[in-house]
C-alpha cells in the first residue's frame, strides 16, 4: 500500500475547551454542514476529542450525523482496570463507555503534566490491551529543531513505544507529528518541512513493523482552513490533528473537506 492509498484522518483536539453550550452548538453546526455537503466516510475519517466531562454527551449528539464521526478521549490513566485511583479514568472505563479512540503523548501532556516516556508507554500499553485505537503524538521543540536534532527526537519517541506494541497492534495506531513550536502559535511547519519529517517517520515505522507502510501519519500544529489544501497535497501527510481551528465548525469542515479530496 502506498501512502496515498491510506484513508486520511482529520481529528479535532478541543483541549480544555469549550463550555457545554458552545460544544453543543459546534456539533450541531458541523452536522448541518455535513448535511449540506457530505464528506463520505471512505474519503476521510473524522473524529473529535472533547473534554472528558463532555465525551459521552458529544458521542450521543453525534449519533444522528449523516456519517461516522469518532469520539476520541484526550488522555487516559497509566493505571488499568478499576480501583482506588482518585481522579483517574482507565482504558477499560473508556471502552465501557464505547469510546474507542484516545490521544497519547500530546506535547502538552508531556510538557505540563509530566508524561515522560515511561508514562506514555504505560498508557499506550493499557489502551492497546483494552482494544482502543491510539493517536500517538510526537514532535520536537524549537530548540531541538535549531540544534538539528528534530528527526532524532521524533524517531526516538517512536522507538520508545516499540517495545510495548505487539505486532498486530500496530494496526490500531495512528501517528500525529506535531512540532511543538507550531502548536497554537499560528506558525505552521512549511509543507516541505512537514513532508520531509513524515517521510522520515514512515521510514522509521517500516523498520519497526511490517505494518509500517499502512500507518496514517497526521500533521498537527496551526492547521487551519487556509493551509489545509497545501498540507493535504503533500503525499506523506495522511491527515491532520487540529486544535484551535477545530473549535469553529466551518473551519473544521473545510479542513476535513480538503483532506477528503486528497
Ligand atoms: P493547534 O493545536 O492546531 O491549535 O496548533 C494542535 C494540537 O495541539 O493538537
Globular, elongated, flat, extended or rod-shaped: what is the shape? globular
Architecture in CATH? Alpha-Beta Barrel
Which molecules other than protein and nucleic acid are bound? 2-phosphoglycolic acid
Provide the residue-averaged pLDDT: 96
| CATH level-4 homologous superfamily | Aldolase class I
> Helicity range of the residues?
40-55%
Tell me how many strands there are.
8
Rg, Cα atoms, Å? 17 Å
CATH class: Alpha Beta
The count of domains is 1
SSE pattern, N- to C-terminal: EHEHEHEHHEHHEHEHEH
Describe how the helices and strands are arranged.
Blueprint: E1 9-13, H1 20-36, E2 45-49, H2 55-61, E3 70-73, H3 91-96, E4 101-104, H4 107-112, H5 117-129, E5 133-138, H6 142-146, H7 150-162, E6 173-177, H8 191-208, E7 217-220, H9 225-232, E8 239-242, H10 249-260
Parallel strand pairs: 1-2, 1-8, 2-3, 3-4, 4-5, 5-6, 6-7, 7-8
Helix pairs in contact: 1-10, 7-8, 9-10
The structure holds 2-phosphoglycolic acid.
Residues 13, 178, 183-184, 220-223, 241-245 line the site of 2-phosphoglycolic acid.
Pfam families: TIM
InterPro entries: Aldolase_TIM, TIM_sf, TrioseP_Isoase_bac/euk, Triosephosphate_isomerase, Triosephosphate_isomerase_AS
Active site: 106 (electrophile), 178 (proton acceptor)
